[in-house]
Amino acid sequence: MVQALLNSKRWGEYARFAVTGVANTAIDFAAFNGLLLLSGGTVGRPAYVVFKSVSFCAAVANSYVMNSRWVFKRAAAKKARREGVTFFAASGIGFLLNIAASVGVFSLVKWLVPSLGDAWGANIGAVAGVIATNTWNFLSYKFFVFKADARTGETAPKDSFDASAL
Question: How buried is 141 (Cβ within 10 angstroms: 0-12 exposed, 13-18 middle, 19+ buried)?
Fold first, then answer.
């Protein structure tokens, strides 16, 4: 059933994007929480921004590989440079949305519920950042970065998942 959903013309792209999003979120949270652990679990706003920036960049690197090779049709070699530039430009806007939402919520949680602790507040903020950027990422990647071919309208890659493409 999952394989059928991933290969579906109508829902496959959304399902593949969701799977990629889960992988990106796991990478983001693993890197972020690893940095939190290294810092001793206490973090102020400047360190929070640095930690979120590092974890976001790790997730974006994975995102480019999975989106370009699996979720959306890979551009021809001559278009790959434009695709890469627009991907990282769109991701830059996503980064600003992510940081603004996560720092805002982190600061709000620290102010409203100081007893909750930095690690919990930091992760609640990180969730807010993910939620704030998911819609932007899908729409910008689909309509600007990995645009459908004007002649065929196709954006989906091969008919089935090929792990070797990653």
Answer: buried
